[in-house]
UniProtKB/TrEMBL annotation:
One term of GO molecular function: glycerate kinase activity
Keywords in alphabetical order: Kinase, Transferase
Lineage, broadest ranks: Bacteria, Bacillati, Actinomycetota, Actinomycetes, Micrococcales
Region called Disordered, residue ranges: 1-36
Protein name as catalogued: Glycerate kinase
GO biological process: organic acid phosphorylation
Length: 353
C-alpha cells in the first residue's frame, strides 16, 4: 500500500500560551523578546498529529508551525540571508526598544508581529523609543514634545540600512469607521479613553507625522501634497493593526506584509504542501475573520491549485458548512477533548493509497 501523507499546520493562535510577566530584554534564543515571553508552541496541533498517526499508522504525518515565535523557526530565520531577527513586544514602546536592540546586535532585517501588541497609540511609543539612537542635537528637551519631523528623522536615521517588516494579522486602516479605534471599541477592547476623543487624537498625530514624512523623506508615490501622504499612510491595509503600530512602522520607513503569507514563505510552505495529500490546519477559533485572512485562506490558496484538500480543526467553530465551503475548505470540525474524536476525523479524511 502506498503511503498517505498528511501535513498538520499550527497557526499563530493554536494551543499557544504566552506569559507576559517579567522584565523586558533579550529572550533566550535567537530573537529578542521585549515582553519576557514564555511560550508553549503548537500544543494542540501536536496532540492532533499524534492522534492522527495512531488512527492511521500507514500515513506519514508531518508537523509544521506557522508561529513566528517558534524557536526552531527563529533559528532558521537568523541563519538566513540576510540574518532576520523576530522581536516580540506587548506595547508600542517596547517594540521600538526591541527593534533598536536587534539593530545594535547587527540585524539587517527586523520583523515585528503586530498581533502581540496591545497598546493603542498610533505607533507614537515606537517612534519615541527610536529616539534612543538619535544624535543629541536632534533630541527635544525632556519636558517638551518632540516635533513630528524630528521623530521621523530620528526613526529613519536609527533604521538606515535595515529592512523593517511588520507582520499584519488584521488589515485595518488607522482611522475611520473600520479603523483601529472603532474596531477595537466594537470588540469591547480598551482604546485608552473615549473612542471619539481617541480617534481625534490619533488623526491629529497621524496628520503631524505624515507632514513629517513628507518634509523629511518626500513622498514620490503620492506626489508633493502632504495631505496625499496622510491618506496613503493612514489607509494602507494594516496601518491600524497593533493599535496603529503598523502606521508608526510605515512612518519609520518599514513595510507591512501579511503575517500568514510571510510565515508560509519563511517556512517554504509551498514545497511542504506539494508533497502531501491532505492539509490539516489547527486553530483556536474558526470564524468569519479567520476564513478571510490569515493561515486558513493562505493554506487554501497554496493547496487549491495542487488539488490538495484543506481541513480545519478548531476549538471554537463559529461558521457553518456554507461559509467554509465558499472559503474553499473541504471540512471544518470542532476539536473535542477526546483523541477518539480526532481519530474519527483522521479515518474520514486520510486518503486511501
Amino acid at each position: 500500500m502506498a503511503t498517505a501523507r498528511v501535513l498538520v499546520l499550527s497557526s499563530t493562535d493554536a494551543g499557544t500560551t504566552r506569559s507576559r510577566e517579567g522584565a523586558t530584554g533579550p529572550a533566550t534564543g535567537p530573537a529578542h523578546d521585549a515582553g519576557g515571553a514564555a511560550q508553549d508552541f503548537g500544543t494542540a496541533a501536536d496532540a492532533v498529529a499524534r492522534a492522527w498517526s495512531a488512527a492511521e499508522p500507514h500515513a506519514v504525518v508531518t508537523r509544521r508551525t506557522l508561529d513566528v515565535h517558534d524557536p526552531v523557526l527563529r533559528a532558521a530565520l537568523r541563519a538566513a540571508e540576510p540574518p532576520t531577527e523576530v522581536v516580540a513586544a506587548t506595547s508600542s514602546g517596547a517594540a521600538g526598544r526591541a527593534v533598536l536592540d536587534a539593530v545594535r546586535d547587527g540585524a539587517r532585517r527586523v520583523v515585528v508581529p503586530l498581533a502581540d501588541v496591545t497598546t493603542h497609540d498610533g505607533g507614537h511609543g515606537f517612534l519615541t523609543a527610536l529616539l534612543g539612537d538619535a544624535p543629541a542635537d536632534e533630541r527635544a528637551p525632556a519636558d517638551e514634545p518632540v516635533p513630528a519631523d524630528a521623530l521621523v528623522r530620528a526613526a529613519r536615521a536609527a533604521l538606515r540600512g535595515v529592512d523593517l517588516v511588520a507582520l499584519v494579522h488584521d488589515d485595518l486602516p488607522l482611522l475611520g469607521l473600520h479603523g483601529a479605534t472603532a474596531t477595537r471599541a466594537d470588540r469591547g477592547q480598551d482604546v485608552g479613553g473615549d473612542p471619539q476623543q481617541v480617534e481625534r487624537s490619533l488623526s491629529a498625530l497621524a496628520d503631524d507625522l505624515a507632514r513629517g514624512v513628507h518634509d523629511v523623506a518626500g513622498d514620490l508615490l503620492a506626489g508633493s501634497d502632504a495631505r496625499s501622504t496622510f491618506r496613503r499612510l493612514t489607509s494602507t491595509p494594516g496601518a491600524g493593526d497593533g493599535g496603529g503600530l503598523g502606521f508608526g512602522m510605515l512612518v519609520a520607513g518599514g513595510r507591512l506584509v501579511d503575517a500568514a503569507r510571510w510565515a508560509g514563505a519563511a517556512t517554504d510552505l509551498d514545497a511542504a504542501i506539494s508533497g502531501v495529500d491532505l492539509v490539516v490546519v489547527v486553530r483556536e477559533v474558526l470564524d468569519g475573520t479567520a476564513l478571510h485572512g490569515g493561515e486558513v485562506p493562505d493554506a487554501v490558496r497554496r493547496a487549491g491549485p495542487l488539488g490538495v484538500p484543506v481541513v480545519v480543526l478548531a476549538a471554537d467553530v463559529r461558521v457553518g458548512r456554507r461559509e467554509t465551503g465558499a472559503a474553499g475548505l473541504a471540512g471544518a470540525y470542532a476539536l473535542e477533548d477526546s483523541d477518539a474524536h480526532v481519530r474519527r476525523i483522521a479515518r474520514t479524511w486520510t486518503p486511501a493509497r
